Amino acid sequence: MSAMVRKLLCADAEQQVALTSRGLDPTLLEAPWLTVCSRARAAREAIAASPAMEEAIVLSSEEVEGINLAAALKVDAPACRVYLAACEETGSVRSRLAAAHLDGVLSLDEVVRRLSAEIVPDTAAIAADDASGRGREEERAGGFLLTVVSGSGGAGKSTVAAMLAHGAARRGLRCALVDADLQFGDLGEIGAADAHVSLDALAEDSALLPEVSAGEVALIEAPGRPELAEVLAESLDRAVQEALGRFDFVVVDTGGSWNEQQVRLLERSAAVVFLIDQRASSVRACRRALDLCLRCGVATSSFVLVLNRCGRHAPFTSIDVSSALQGAPVIELADGGREVEELLGAASAPALFASGNDLCASVDRLLGELLPRGTALCQGVAQEGVIARWGLKGARAREKKHMRRASRRRSRAQCDEIRVPLGEGR
């Protein structure tokens, strides 16, 4: 390979020894065209600092599972070919490879051959890479995938997910709503869709996926029997992929627990709405979840942090939660009051959104910020912006307002200090 072509090798000390034992010249690990990293953070910094990086090979790292690091690198540099190496190719791994749009799995011997060749891959290999790249771009160019998550249960995920889907439908999009809480999901009970099918039925016959017109919502319900949740986890991945190919906008409502299935959803989503409610435990759970993403190499650049049930008498504001999350920008959703529970309890989700309720109005504003990014996100463009473009702007405005109020309070306090001595003097 010419010196102008850049490669990244992610391998801890043990894997580097394994490569040399299989015939790799140790001096190649110091070649100018190759960057070798043993830690996940160093690997992500290296690929971010080298826009011309053409290929990354991930064997392992000292603190993050290889497949999680590979997925994060692909998000950081979509144009770079990213391969996972020295990994047993199980069904779960293949599913995660597809979800993260990785370019393949290599054996240790294949890694040695690639690094030892120092030539540009042959024309056939380039053509195959280009074809697979076009396939991945076509896959990403399908529907816009939005996942709603939280660090704990009871944050209002199902309500917000349903309102996001109906908001997109009112904008003329063909929408699918997927209930990924496979044990206790209840989107089918709140009248959240114009047509529906259960996941267990869809797993047996993919042709059952409903067809809807523009402005309508189709629902993939959780299975009727909670004991099928683990069995149907793989079917959920296929159902989401099928929905992305047939709908403009796909909203996935997740359960309260985090597992491998949820990580795969996060990795493939164009945007992730991370919901926090008005409990201190929810804020702590969010902090732990974000730390988990960092340690597992799950990219969080597509996350939008959202504080639910905000109002005059709510215990927290977005500034409070932002302070607890080290300054991360947080968006507020208004408390919809009793009307939300009443209409959802009557299975009238469309009527709730049409009512212009405060919650629905704030969800619609959030949706207005997410949707314009849809095309760029699905095509793999850098995903920095959803938080920065809306949340940070709102947070700064609220911070200025907070500072003005604090200044007025200090002024009143100073006036009180002056009046007290005057009164005593009389």
UniProtKB/TrEMBL annotation:
Pfam (any one): CbiA
A molecular-function term among this protein's GO annotations: ATP hydrolysis activity
GO biological process, alphabetically ordered: negative regulation of cell division
Gene3D superfamilies: P-loop containing nucleotide triphosphate hydrolases
Domain (CobQ/CobB/MinD/ParA nucleotide binding): residue spans on this chain: 146-184
InterPro entries: CobQ/CobB/MinD/ParA_Nub-bd_dom, P-loop_NTPase, ParA/MinD_ATPase
Gene Ontology CC, one term: cytosol
Name of protein: Chromosome partitioning protein ParA
Organism placement in taxonomy: Bacteria, Bacillati, Actinomycetota, Coriobacteriia, Eggerthellales
